[in-house]
Design brief:
The chain is of the alpha+beta class and 270 residues long. It has 2 domains: 4-123, N-terminal domain of MutM-like DNA repair proteins (Alpha-Beta Barrel), CATH 3.20.190.10; 141-264, Helicase, Ruva Protein, domain 3, CATH 1.10.8.50. The protein has helices at 4-18, 39-42, 141-148, 155-160, 170-180, 193-212, and strands at 23-28, 51-55, 58-62, 67-71, 77-81, 91-97, 102-106, 113-117, 253-257, 260-264. A 4-stranded antiparallel β-sheet has the order 1-6-7-5, covered by helices on one side. The protein has a 4-stranded antiparallel β-sheet with strand order 2-3-4-8, with helices on one face. A two-stranded antiparallel ribbon has the order 9-10. Strand 6 (91-97) and strand 7 (102-106) form a beta hairpin. Helix 1 (4-18) runs parallel beside helix 6 and helix 3 packs across helix 6 (193-212). The longest helix is centred in the C-terminal third of the chain and has 20 residues, at 193-212. It is globular. The two termini are 28 Å apart. The relative contact order is 0.14. It binds a DNA duplex (16 and 16 nucleotides) through helix 5.
Amino acid sequence: MPELPEVETTLRGVAPYLLGRRIVDVDVRERRLRWPVPKEIDALVGVTVKGASRRAKYLLFDVGRGTVILHLGMSGSLRVSDPDVEWRKHDQLGLRIDSGKELRFHDPRRFGCVLFCKGDPAKHKLIRDLGPEPFAEEFDANYLSAQAKGKKVAIKQLVMNSHVVVGVGNIYACEALFMAGIHPSRAAGRIGRVRLARLVAAIKEVLGQSIEQGGTTLRDFLREDGEPGYFKQSLRVYDREGEPCRECGATVKRIVQTGRSTFYCPKCQR
DNA sequence: AAAACTACCTGAGTGC
DNA sequence: TGCACTCAGGTAGTTT
């Protein structure tokens, strides 16, 4: 479910409840996430949360002695609730905060993870080889053309590769390619620099717009307060197979690329 | 080196 | 109602 805007929305939602607060209890009800939840998580009782940030789709909570690394996977979400609220099915763990609130990690498919990193999280195995953030200045037309040069891989796969740029998942890859007028199957190395510049701008724009609207609720994404995101109504091609293109009226097509659905307008995207 | 494929899971929806 | 099947927003790790 969650792509970068949903992760950013989650971060902004939970940070105020955590920053400067002490964890007073930890309740791990299911250790079998993507990787087993380590014992250091149980040992967080008594620590103070000093920072909350995001790198790619990883949420990072600085607790002084180390960093909690949390990924929502395909179906994860965080919710701030009152401790007496009944645990839902697939609520995998909860952190009681000294404010009286409880942060719960909910993840039906268990593709998410909750890990602990002792040293600099930037050096962590899951994080150290990631590409630039999409909003970083270094992610520009020069950079993307250098990455695309000589590559035969489809442009959609290139921008979804986290070693190239982070945070562009299936929905926003489709949307950005539509905005840039680029066919998702086009070989990355055969796209001119002007069009790549347009794609870079589109990625920044679509992610920014979605964050402003609280992310995209497609099927089940809910924010930390249980509210949906409102970007779905702004989707131009994603999940719109058979419907008319909002620009030209042509029928939106769906194809499958490396096992994932791609939606595009055959007239607007070449 | 690059590209393709596998694996990890549950739940919703569809067609019979 | 029930069963079989497909599909879903991610990504590390393995194979080709």
